[in-house]
Amino acid sequence: MGSEEFRDCFLDKIINESELKASQYIVDTVSYNKLDIADVYEKIRAHLNLFIDKKVLMDLTRGKRIMSAGAGIVGAFFGFSLVYIDEEWTDEIKRGLPGTEKLVMVKNPFEVFGDLELKEARDFLNHYNYGAALSLYKRIQQKIVDPRNVEIEALLSETYLQWNSFNFKAALFKLQLAVNKLQQYHFKTRPEILENLTALKILESGKEISTKKSDEFNLHVIVDLYVNALRKAEEGIFEDSISRLYRVLELISQYRLQKYGIETINPNIKKYEEAYKKATKELYSFEKELPLEVGLKDGYILLFILQDYVLESYSLDDLRQMFGVIRARDMSIIAHGLQLAGEKIFLNMNQLAKSFIQHVCSHEGKNFNSILRQHTFVKL
Length: 380
Description:
It contains 17 helices and seven strands. By secondary structure, it is mostly helical. The protein folds into three domains: 105 residues, no CATH class; 59 residues, no CATH class; 185 residues, no CATH class.
């Protein structure tokens, strides 16, 4: 690709000297008139199919400055090898001194600093595609001059990849490594990362904590699953989000029932039989026998009977409406039906789950927004 002047004055000589055949080259020209980088890009892009899986050498020597700049940007972007002819300049004749020409390789700044791939890796991370982000980060580390930031961001990707799958132990290990690296390199540590670290330490210590601390652990498990559901919804995967919100509601019910000594399997609830039958009669128009295993709806019926704070100010009509929201989930393909759950069901389930978590936080003297931040993944 060159100017019309190049085509008319120099092209034939190059073809003769190099002994190129007509089938071995394509000539395209650009006009100097109102030329800009976009024009150069368009010309090169039109022939990109010729360069697939091939080593491309782009000569940036001479030409109008805007042509050289445009060619350099496009060549760097697509990973071409860049060169130019350098020579000793002679002011007397206003040109290079013959015989002093030498070929100079130009380092691709995108490869030296990894800016393009780094932006792509961060986009993957910010959209929760941690596997793809990690793969890119590892590739960038191998070729850039200063890989320290990339090393830390790769560890962050590994952290969230494991955390997103509820592997708290592996996530904590990777995040602690990231924090250690930040301190080692004297980089500023974002407060959100330290908040994440706090949450992971609580989640991972769950098997070892005392009964005194079990309330805090249970609350963090509930919030962690809730935030996981929000991430799925942000990705537009409402079916997965709704299934997680359903489990959040179950966990809240189980957590509160344990305070009354009620387990979900073979529960000791004989003393609530009369109240249970009365409530189910009004809710379902028929009396139900006491369950041998407490599911989500039975759990909230018992909490209603117990007048637990989670359902404070709830009437049987409110409980019926709540069960209507849950029934919409039950009819979806993720449960017992064949319908797709959508955004509307997510919004209704989210409203329920959020309000119940806020009740628990308020009762436990915890700040809902603060705990939410601890479980929210950092974006770059």
